[in-house]
Amino acid sequence: MKQIKQIIFSFALVVMTGFVLSVTAQTTSVLTVGLEKPNKIITAGDNSLLVAEGGTTTPNSGRVSLVNRTSGARRTIIDGLPSGVNNLGGPPAPSGPSGLKLHGHTLFLTIGPGDAVQNVGPGLESPNPNPSSPLYDSVLELNLPGKYEQLTSGFTLSLSDQTTLAGGGEVELTNADGLTLGIRMIADFPNYQPNPRPGFPNNQRASNIFGVELFQKNLYVVDASFNLIYRVEIADGSFEPFVTFPNRPNPLFPTMGGPFVEPVPDNIHRVGNQLLVPLLTGFPFVAGLAEVQTVALKGGDRETLIPNLTSAIDVLHVETDDLSGDRYYALEFSASMLGTPQNPGVALPGRLKFFAAPDAAPVTLVSNLISPTAMARDEATGDIFVTEIFPGRIIRVQIL
Question: Is the peptide bond before 254 cis (omega within 30 degrees of 0)?
Answer without folding.
Answer: yes
